[in-house]
Amino acid sequence: MSGDVGLYEGLTTTRAIRRFTDEPVSDEDLAAILFAATRAPSGSNRQPFRFLVLREGAEEAKALIGSTFRSSWAAMSRGQYARLTVEADPTSAAYRAGQAMQRFVDGFERIPVVVLPVFIPYRGTDITSGASIYPACQNLLLAARARGLGGVLTMWHGAIEAQLKTMLGIPEEAVIAAVIPIGHPEGSHGPVRRRPLAELVHEDRWDAPAPWAVDPPGTRYTR
Amino acid sequence: MSGDVGLYEGLTTTRAIRRFTDEPVSDEDLAAILFAATRAPSGSNRQPFRFLVLREGAEEAKALIGSTFRSSWAAMSRGQYARLTVEADPTSAAYRAGQAMQRFVDGFERIPVVVLPVFIPYRGTDITSGASIYPACQNLLLAARARGLGGVLTMWHGAIEAQLKTMLGIPEEAVIAAVIPIGHPEGSHGPVRRRPLAELVHEDRWDAPAPWAVDPPGTRYTR
Fold first, then answer.
1. Which residue of A29, A101, A207, B149 has the fewest C-beta atoms within 10 A of its own C-beta?
2. Selection from B119, B133, B135 nearest residue B176 by Cα
C-alpha cells in the first residue's frame, strides 16, 4: 500500500481509476476502506445507508451491471461522447480517454470488487439527502487511494436499479446511490483536470470575484 | 497548519468542528481548500456547482443564517434533541454536546467563513444529483482539516433558502446544497463515533454478513 501520501496531496491527486489489474482486493483493505467511508458525516450522524460489497458471490449482479454499462457506453460513444470516439483524432488524449472507457466497460466483470452504496430514505430523496451518503462515497474512494487501490464513482445504473434491487434483495424503498468498482490500479493517481477556480468560486455575492481563488501553478484545466 | 496528517488518518479522524477561535482564515488557506474541493469527482466531470464564500462583505446573510440556526436549535433542543438538553444529566457527554450546539448557534456570526456550496441543476435535483456536489463538500472539510482548520456540514437552511438566494443574487433555479462554517478549531480533531461496521456492510446480498467488516480495536460507537 502507498500509505505515505498526505491528506492534502491525497485530496488533490485522487483520480477516477477505471483500469485495474487482476490482483484481488484483500479483506483487510476492504475493511479499512469501508471503515473510512463510514467515518464521513451524515445528517444528524444518522448514517442512513448500507454498503453492499459485490465480490465472488454476486456474479449475476456484476454481469447485469457490466452489460448495462456496455450498452450505455455504446450509445454515449456515438452520441454525447462522440468527441472521444468516432470524431476523435486517434493520436489525441480524447481518443485515449474513449479507449479507456471502452476497456472499462468491456472488462467490467473482471473488476474484483463493486460497491453499491445504498441510501435508506427517512425524509425524501431530494438532492439534500445526498449529503448523507456521497461524503461517505468520497471517503471510500480516498481511502482506496490511501490503501494503494483505486475506483470510480459511476452513475449509469438508473435503468437497471429496480432489477438490481430485486436480484440482490435490496428493499424497494432504498436507493442505489452509485456503483463504485474498486481494484488495484493499472496506471497511477495524479493531478486531475478541472475548471479554473475563478469560474467556480465567488466571494460574498453571486458572480462577485474571489480574487484569492487562484489555482496553483501547473494546474491543468478542462476545456 | 497540521500538514503532516496522512490521508487515511485524516479520513478517519476528521470531526465536525462547531467551536472556532476568532483567528481569521487566510486567503491562502481558503484558496487551498477550495482547490481541493473542486478536485472531487462530479458526473461527467461537469462540476455543476459554485462555492459562494461568505466573509466580511456578507454580514446580512450570515445574520440571517445565524438567526435561523438559533430558532431551529431552540425548537430541536426541546423536541428531538431533548436528550441533549432538558432531559440530559448535566454531567453527561450528551449534555456537553447540547451545550456545544448552543454555543455554535449563539456565536454563528463570529465564525470567520461560511461557505455555501451551490448546485446548478442540469438534469433534475434528485438524490443522485448530490453525487456531483457532496464529494466536493467532503473534500472541502477534509482539506480544511489538512490546513489546520475545521468545519461542519449543516443542512438547517431549508426554510430561508429562497430568502438567501434573493439576498445574495443566487439564481432561482440553483440549490444551496449546504451551509459550511469554517474556522480555526477550538478543540481538536480525533476519532468519531459511528454505528458498528457490521450494521452497515453486507457482502454479495442485502442483509448477508460481511465477516471481514470489523471495526478496528478501540472504535467508539453511537447509541
1. A207
2. B119
For A184-194, what is each residue's pLDDT tens digit? 999 889 999 99
- Strand ranges, E, within chain A: 49-54, 113-119, 150-151, 175-176, 180-183, 201-203
- B135 CB near a chain A CB, below 8 Å? yes
Q: Look-up: residue for cell 436528550?
A: B83
- State how far the alpha carbon of A6 is from the alpha carbons of A203, B31, B152, in Å: 29, 18, 21
Residues of A in Cβ contact (< 8 Å) with B54: 204
3-state DSSP call for residue A14?
A: coil
Residue type present at position B87: E
Q: In whole angstroms, what separates CA A171 from the centre of its chain?
A: 23
**pLDDT tens readout for residues B60-80:** 999 999 999 999 999 999 998
Touching check for A2 and chain B: CB below 8 Å? Answer: no
Low-confidence ranges of chain B (pLDDT < 70): 1-3, 223
Question: What are the structural domains, with CATH classification, of chain A?
Answer: 7-192 (3.40.109.10), 194-223 (no CATH)
Cα gap A32→B201, rounded to integer Å? 12
Residues of B in contact with A182 (CB under 8 A): none
